[in-house]
Amino acid sequence: MLRELNKTNSVFNKFLSEMRDVQSQKDSMRFRRNLERLGEIFAYEISKELHYELKSVQTPLGIADMYLPTAKIVLGAILRAGLPLHQGLLNYFDAAENAFISAYRKYGKDNKFTIQFESISCPTIEGKVLILCDPMMATGASMELAYNALLTRGRPAHTHIAAPIASRDGVEYILRHLPADDVTLWTGAIDEELTIKSYIIPGLGDAGDLAYGSKL
Question: Which end is more exposed in the chain, N or C (fewer Cβ atoms within 10 Å of the end residue's Cβ)?
């Protein structure tokens, strides 16, 4: 299943446009904060898909009957660029458990690359709702590898993937390679092109560098 948030006009588009803008990108603190805001909006939208049960809440003056979410949630982030987005999700799902995946592109000849995993820190995800986030989804390969790596920790009841910007190729790759009944893909915008090095056009550049500074 695919959900595209920019199909509905909202303040989400304002935050995303600032992240794309080369002038706004000069302020790394604002870039991180906008990523966090997008995480909060993704969390709100995803919350509509969760299971709810009627609960009684004691107030100072009586009893209020309210529908509350019951799912156990694990938030997964691909380091390092995924950290602000992860924080936004955690702001809303504040009782969630957390998983972190260390991965990077290793380039070889002809601009071809493989995804290298260094470590995974994750609780069991058996029967839980997994929310896996990364600011950019280019080819979709790293997201698929992250998903499969997390399956070594159990089989989630459902997985939500949140990517503010995705390429058309990446979206189609995920829809082909991940189980449609078990995974929902959430994007903020789908861009149509990839460079020869698999960077998204128009995209926004390197999200990790914009958030935390250039790497070696």
Answer: C
CA distance 35 to 165: 11
Instruction: With respect to residue 152, please indicate whether it lies within any of the assigned structural domains.
Output: yes
Q: Within the chain, how many helices (H) and strands (E) appear?
A: 6, 12
* Structural domain boundaries, residue 126: 2-50+70-212
Environment class of 113 (CB within 10 Å of its CB; exposed 0-12, middle 13-18, buried 19+): middle
Burial class (CB in 10 A: 0-12, 13-18, 19+), 58: exposed
Domain with 204 in it: what CATH number? 3.40.50.2020
> Sign of the CA dihedral 137, 83, 158, 188?
negative
User: Is 64 inside a domain boundary?
Assistant: no
What is the predicted pLDDT for the residue at 214? Answer: 84
Structure confidence at residue 108 as a pLDDT band (50, 70, 90):
low
Number of domains the chain is built from? 1
How do residues 84-99 score in pLDDT, each as one tens digit? 999 999 999 999 999 9
Strand partners, 167: 191
Residue 7 lies in a domain: yes
Asked if residue 114 lies in contact with residue 87, where contact means CB atoms within 8 angstroms, the answer is: no
Taking a C-beta distance cutoff of 8 angstroms, is the pair 55, 66 a contact?
Answer: yes
Structure confidence at residue 198 as a pLDDT band (50, 70, 90): confident
Which tokens belong to 198?
A: 């698999």
In a domain, 57, yes or no: no
